[in-house]
Design brief:
The chain is built from 16 helices and 8 strands. It is an alpha+beta fold. Strand 6 and strand 7 form a beta hairpin. Helix 13 packs across helix 15.
């Protein structure tokens, strides 16, 4: 079985259609079907309106009906959900109403949206007249639920009971927040620790399980990586895994891979130019001995130049390398915030351009009255919806004053410039960390060999004496 909802649409049919057929929710529009109309929102809304004007009485303010059918997580495939939704429309509407079905896969629970024209194109009657009269048990919402239940029983599906319980926070999450330790913060900390211990991404996935992190990884999916703390699942069996993207750019697949590589290079750096070890027979050959000494002196000289470059002593080199690495990690967090800010502003820029293009339609609509205004609203439904929707979002983002396109473009350019400067600083810190690590190890190895050689000389003198 499935949970069903039904509500009427009195404002913008086009806006509602644009929402349900969104390619990001419907696998690139592959999970969209229609009956007696096109699937493109603007044209479908116009076809709905043509039927209402030709066959309807014009007395109802309701333009369409919106049915939602939600299935339990992992219980049906999107294709099965589409088949069930189509059969629901067949039994409920009997091929007398235009409708569009869109199955959404952007949540763990697959769900179908159905938008139905409010006017029967055969009888001219409204949906309310034919389906929403009489006792409660005979009204549309009850009829939709009954048919949906029948279909789900036929397909051996279960019921999503008390769907409202999945909203809000679990008691465990509330308690973590109360202590200042949200589960997301705890999860991010746990992932950070595993990153430090991992040899590569495959090793990271294995170590997650060992460190109490449930992980889902499928490189073929758009949403390829999800996490959850095992203790969270134990406390709340209904809890869902969190997308890596939700935790932040720093926790997405490619960034985790990059972090593992950088961390290993800084903390477990293997020197490219190794100190030449002296073989036993070389002690007896002065020519070989001098050649090796010259090579070692050259390497040590390079290490000393690196120390001079950064103004640190041999004793300070390792600590300075670790400090540079720590600064680089902090910088990555700041770069993450700037990147998210740029993404947010770029989305607002899209809204702003749409808002400016649709504003003339809104202004003309406001200049009209009565039937002229209503007729204009029906004719330019899509443009008026876009104006209303983008204005609402822009006022949330800019409560004091909505900027111009030029102002927002300049702000985005400034953020990109700041990010570029931070990238330059990141590269410098990365180089500093690597070079100091290399220099520190070379000098330590050189000193160790020199001490070993001195001990050997003393032993030889003792033997000779």
């Amino acid at each position: 079985m499935a949970v069903t909802k039904l509500h009427s649409i009195s404002d913008s049919v086009c806006g509602s259609l644009e929402y349900i057929v969104d390619g990001n929710k419907t696998r690139g529009h592959s999970l969209v079907e229609s009956f007696m109309c096109e699937t493109e929102p603007v044209r479908a809304a116009a076809e709905f309106r043509a039927v209402r004007e030709r066959f309807g009485t014009g007395r109802s303010t309701t333009k369409a009906q919106h049915i939602i059918q939600s299935f339990a997580p992992n219980e049906v495939t999107p294709e099965q959900a589409m088949e069930i939704a189509q059969e629901l429309c067949h039994r409920l509407l009997k091929e007398q109403y235009q409708y569009i079905i869109a199955v959404h896969t952007d949540h763990d629970h697959t769900h179908a949206h159905i938008i139905v024209n409010n006017t029967n194109y055969i009888t001219g009657r409204t949906f309310e007249t034919e389906h929403n009269q009489g006792k409660k048990k005979d009204r549309a919402w009850a009829e939709v639920r009954r048919i949906s239940d029948e279909l789900c029983k036929e397909n051996n599906l279960s019921v999503i009971e008390h769907p409202e319980e999945v909203k809000g926070k679990s008691h465990w999450e509330w308690d973590m927040n109360r202590q200042g330790l949200s589960w997301k913060a705890k999860l991010k900390y746990a992932i950070d620790q595993v990153v430090k211990e991992s040899d590569d991404f495959a090793d990271f996935l294995l170590k997650c399980a060992e460190n109490g992190i449930l992980v889902y990884y499928n490189p073929e999916h758009t949403i390829d990586l999800k996490f959850m703390l095992a203790e969270q699942k134990e406390r709340n069996p209904r809890a869902k895994m969190t997308r890596a993207k939700t935790l932040g750019w720093f926790y997405e697949t490619e960034q985790i891979k990059s972090r593992i590589i950088h961390y290993k290079n800084a903390m477990e750096y293997k020197t490219k130019a190794r100190i030449i070890r002296v073989p036993v027979q070389a002690e007896e050959n002065k020519f070989i001995r001098d050649s090796i000494d010259r090579s070692n002196m050259k390497l040590t000289s390079k290490a000393m130049n690196i120390l001079a470059k950064y103004g640190v002593t041999a004793e300070e080199a390792n600590a300075a390398a670790v400090e540079a690495y720590g600064e680089r990690i902090t910088l990555v967090g700041e770069m993450n915030q700037i990147s998210e800010e740029i993404k947010k502003r770029e989305q607002q820029l899209i809204w702003l351009r749409t808002y400016q293009n649709a504003k003339p339609f809104h202004d003309h609509y406001m200049s009209l009255k009565g039937r002229k205004q209503k007729k204009y609203a029906d004719q330019f439904d899509a443009e008026l919806y876009r104006y209303s929707a983008t204005e609402s979002e822009l006022k949330k983002a800019f409560p004091k004053k909505i900027p111009t396109v030029e102002q927002l473009e300049k702000h985005i350019a400034k953020l990109r410039g700041k990010l570029n400067n931070m990238n330059t600083k990141y590269d410098a810190l990365d180089q500093k960390s690597r070079e100091l690590s290399e220099a520190s190890r070379e000098i330590e190895e050189f000193l160790r060999l020199e001490q070993s050689r001195d001990r050997q000389k003393k032993i030889n003198r003792g033997v000779l004496e």
